[in-house]
Amino acid sequence: MVLDSGDTAWILVSTAMVMLMIPGVGLFYGGLVRKKDVVSMIGLSFLALALVSVQWVLVGYSLSFGTDIAGFIGGLDLLGLRGVGMDAGDGTIPGLLFMVFQLVFAGITLAIITSAVAERVRIGSFIVFGLLWTTLVYDPLAHWAWGGGWAGQLGALDFAGGTVVHISSGFGALALALVIGKRIGFGDQDMEPHNIPMTMLGAALLWFGWFGFNAGSALAADGLAANAFVVTNTSAAAGALAWLFASWVKGKPSALGMVSGGIAGLVAITPAAGFVDAISALIIGAVAGVLCYKALLFRVGRGLDESLDAWAVHGVGGLWGAIATGIFAVEAVGGASGLLQGNVDQFVAQVIGAGAAVVYAFVATYALARLVDATMGLRVTEDEEYVGLDISQHGEKAYA
């Protein structure tokens, strides 16, 4: 294939947009924690980007996109980016550009899972956990869907990461939260968000970056990218309004709920963005807004301290989006048809792929978290948690 300058320029920009989403996650989460933990929370997202940037170059890209081994994992033929160069290869963009585009996807996935450990994780333990999790959870899931693994062979569709990014981080966060335990005083003390405008700014960066996330996944500046751009915005808007109205029924219309609903809509359309039209995106986003809101209420009602709701928004939203892809996919958009066009096999493939991702992400994350907790201790001491992680882990304050 020959390099296309338009495609290359678009994926370069998309990569930068997705990278910007990673500090966007930090700001989104940072506003939701108490002011004594905001530096720690934002810092974890930057740490996720740094860790994955090294891991992906050394081994992660090869494990995800190397020669298939038993449908489960990639081989080591691309270790250290061996053979990944500036030429087009099988596409119209440089191999190095495809690699770094996938790198930022892995980075934001690790950033999302920090929801589970907000205000109580040891930074050294998170570094070890993050490297293990990216290598043993994210990389296999990426290979399953995109690198020639069994899910792709089955025909399961995941345009931009519904299973790989959102199910893995969401259900992984639930498992991690169960291991690390509740914050001290959870359910008894005031743990209200300290800065909602900061969270809304983070949501704005995420909404903006998501156009690179989804439209960039077309890997070309073409009509499919345009469709992904439109349905991404449509689903986000529907999710924002659905959550807003659902929260309004129980009291006042929540601005925080509105932006959370927008993120839920973005999550749900991610696997479907290259396969559905705008009307289907309205339905997918609206259902996601209500469904993720109900999941949050369920989590709170059960007393689970998955602190910043990666499970409710990313896990549940990603699961719905993966299944919705099998319902609403239309052949005219991405060449695949779903249940509404009579393709039962596609729907079944989506359910199997999503279900396997849920089980693997939860079980593997739980096992890794237990391992790190038993050997290093995941959690700071009670005194360190009381003082706040900004001081106890970083020796810094967010506010004078």
Give structural notes.
The chain is an all-alpha fold and 400 residues long. 69% of the residues lie in helices and 1% in strands. The chain is built from 15 helices and 2 strands. The chain has helices at 5-32, 38-65, 95-113, 123-146, 150-154, 162-180, 196-215, 223-249, 255-269, 278-301, 310-328, 331-334, 344-375, 382-387, 389-394; strands at 68-69, 73-74. A two-stranded antiparallel ribbon has the order 1-2. α1 (5-32) runs antiparallel to α7.
Instruction: Provide the helix percentage.
Output: 55-70%
Tally of individual helices: 15
| Mean pLDDT across all amino acids | 97
Strand order of the largest sheet: 1-2
| Shape by Cα distribution | globular
Share of residues in strands: under 5%
Main beta sheet, described?
2 strands, antiparallel
Number of strands: 2
Alpha-carbon Rg, integer? 20 Å
Question: Layout of helices and strands, plus pairs?
Answer:
Elements: H1 5-32, H2 38-65, E1 68-69, E2 73-74, H3 95-113, H4 123-146, H5 150-154, H6 162-180, H7 196-215, H8 223-249, H9 255-269, H10 278-301, H11 310-328, H12 331-334, H13 344-375, H14 382-387, H15 389-394
Helix pairs in contact: 1-2, 1-3, 1-7, 2-3, 2-4, 3-6, 4-6, 4-13, 6-11, 6-13, 7-8, 7-9, 8-9, 8-10, 9-10, 9-11, 10-11, 11-13
Keywords, separated by commas or semicolons:
69% helix, 400 residues, mainly alpha, two-stranded antiparallel sheet, 15 helices
